[in-house]
């Protein structure tokens, strides 16, 4: 578990008996870990990483997380980091849509070996990545939680097991189930696309 876990839990416990102002202190204490998580997430998307900085991702994610905390008020680290994972992922989706969508600024900026010939392929890949993340939101909450922690936070299954307080076998079972469901949804999506093109 990351350093400072006990303090984070104490702050969460304190928030249950005070107003939402305690979350400012909580986010400040967790900011370095959230920055590291944002950095890891951004590395997985080199086209986006060439246009924004880690702190760009972090700042917006913190704003979203602060707003969500005042509504959801998680009582455990499991709830807190699960909520953080959702907000970081949604922020990355919105940034991708804004910067790398068909009319996005990033599609007109040469940040790598992308030519006019292969740029449509890049845009299609971006669209598919956005669609994939939208599909994650359709998963059952327990499976989405595991996917977010592994996919966005780059946690190992052992770390997810410890954070969520569940067995490693349960983490693996939820991960496999989520992957199977996502695979089925992606296959169905591809079939629908082909049917649309044929018609």
Describe the protein's architecture and organization:
It is a single chain. The chain is built from nine helices and no strands. The chain has one domain (about 5-199). By secondary structure, the protein is mostly helical. It has helices spanning about 5-15, 20-45, 45-50, 55-70, 75-100, 120-135, 140-150, 155-165, 170-199. Helix 4 crosses helix 5 (about 75-100) and helix 5 (about 75-100) runs antiparallel to helix 6 (about 120-135). Mean pLDDT is about 75; it is low at about 105-125. Helix content is about 75%, strand content about 0%.
| Portion in beta strands | under 5%
- Round the mean pLDDT to the nearest integer and report it: 77
How far apart are the termini?
53 Å
Morphology: globular
Contiguous helical run count = 9
Biggest pleated-sheet summary: none
Output the helix-strand order: HHHHHHHHH
Instruction: Kindly give the count of domains.
Output: 1
Bin the helical content. Answer: over 70%
Counting copies of identical and different chains, the oligomeric state is: single chain
**What is the structural class?**
mainly alpha
